[in-house]
Amino acid sequence: MVHFDMLCDECRSRFTPDPMRYGCDCGSALDFAAPAPPIAVEELASRPANMWRYHEALRIARPEDAVTMGEGMTPLIRADRSDHDLRLKLDFTFPTGSYKDRGAAVLISALREMGADAVVEDSSGNAGAAIAAYAARAGMRCVIYTPSGTSPAKLDQIRVFGAELRLVEGDRQATTEAVLEAAETTPYASHNWTPYFITGVKTVAFEIAEQLGWRAPDNVVAPAGFGSILLGLHLGFSELRRHGITDTTPRLLAAQAERCCPIHVAWRAGADVVDRFVDPRPTLAEGIASTRPIRARQVLDAIRHTEGAVATVTEDEIADGVRALAREGIYVEPTSAVVVSAFDRLVEQGVIRDGDLTVSILTGSGLKASGKVPA
């Protein structure tokens, strides 16, 4: 199937699907060579309320055989804390407690279609748990590499799914580098390199648009580490507009922790490349503590193409965000809570305007990091 071929965005090399192929020989990540088919809007009413209702656009040859736990169609609710029209997309309500299930379901389904029976992955926690869960569902052997300082609850979750856990000393980047040797002999179920993961994540855009009556919001605020959620949002909303399903695309507003914010540094400087962040410090938002995202240029392009922006938040603001959402009955991990103060800052700066409809993505459950933020 031609529309499943993959293309390097840098050197333009083209590849057919292969479970051992996660990136280009030139060292760049891969994207699909051809646009995805449109989703069948007229048929959605008769389909299950999960992300596989959009299967035409998910690059899986046999969606009826997908590795799934009924994930998707997470709630979109109004926020109580703002005078603005702010909606909250509750993507922490997935089976493993984070939005990463979107990408894991598609990626593991694709790898199983290609004949893989084992996978390796590197993760700060949530992607590792998602890959471990869906690998277990698919009957695959799984090894997860994760930073040694990852929250114990996330490590326990990975272990209980039966995955082998390899703890890596150093920062998040060290974990990425550690997995590459294993990827020489075992399929690398990367949530950053392969396009299948981002293809799954783009369903968040489809759901938001459908829940708003096939309208795109004015803005979407999301945490940004490696940037998969921003890339998924950009891909999904771009496809909807290309196929005439929505009339506009939202501005993408990225939220980063002040202690590790390479995308913000590059965006503020007007740079075309993202340099490795110098002197990162430990942050409550461990899930977005990436010093140099693999698809950083694409993330910058997505933000700029949509006339978006990047905001940073302090550790105190992250903790305050956890508590503010909890007062609305919503318990998220600190990585998710960066969107709270980021939204406020973007309102103060005039980036989010009166009358705008804004959606903030809440990406991970508070149960992932219980005890990190005092009540």
List the helices and strands and how they pair.
Elements: E1 6-8, E2 14-15, E3 30-32, E4 76-78, E5 85-90, H1 100-113, E6 118-122, H2 126-138, E7 141-147, H3 152-160, E8 164-168, H4 172-182, H5 195-201, H6 203-211, E9 219-223, H7 228-242, E10 251-257, H8 262-269, H9 296-305, E11 309-313, H10 315-326, H11 334-348, E12 357-362
Parallel strand pairs: 5-12, 6-7, 7-8, 9-10, 9-12, 10-11
Antiparallel strand pairs: 1-2, 1-3, 4-5
Helix pairs in contact: 1-2, 1-5, 2-3, 5-7, 6-7, 7-9, 10-11
Beta-strand content estimate: 15-25%
CATH class of the largest domain: Alpha Beta
Oligomer: single chain
> Element order, helices and strands?
EEEEEHEHEHEHHHEHEHHEHHE
Q: From the 3D structure, determine the CATH topology of the largest domain.
A: Rossmann fold
* CATH architecture tag of the largest domain: 3-Layer(aba) Sandwich
Helix content: 25-40%
Number of DSSP helical runs: 11
Q: Class by helix and strand content?
A: alpha/beta
In spatial order, strands of the major sheet run 4-5-12-9-10-11
**CA-CA gap between termini:** 53 Å
Give the CA-based shape: globular
Number of strands: 12
Identify low-pLDDT runs.
none
Structurally, how many domains make up the residues?
2
